[in-house]
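Lecture notes, continued. The same structure-token format from the folding unit now serves as the input rather than the output. Read the line below as a description of shape only.
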């Protein structure tokens, strides 16, 4: 899963236990990094703007500090689905 996520454009994975403020910092750093990278910025912006409601829900749960299992339960999704969306 990690290799597939990186090939699809992920630039990292959240560490366990999940720290919402650290995750937000990493997301912000990633957005700033691509903001000076030219064409990559458009690529990542489109990816972010194209997140499904489920993917965005997973981000919200991760930022709130919930585990994959808790996020899956709260979102009414399977744990594997949430794990697949968990990659940054």
């Amino acid at each position: 899963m990690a290799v597939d996520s990186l090939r699809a454009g992920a630039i990292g994975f959240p560490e366990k236990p999940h720290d919402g403020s650290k995750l937000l910092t990493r997301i912000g750093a990633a957005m700033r990094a691509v903001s000076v990278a030219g064409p990559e910025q458009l690529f990542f912006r489109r990816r972010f703007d194209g997140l499904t409601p489920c993917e965005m829900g997973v981000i919200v749960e991760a930022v709130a500090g919930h585990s994959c299992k808790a996020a899956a339960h709260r979102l009414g999704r399977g744990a594997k689905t949430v794990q697949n969306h968990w990659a940054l």
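Point for the exam: The chain has six helices and no strands.
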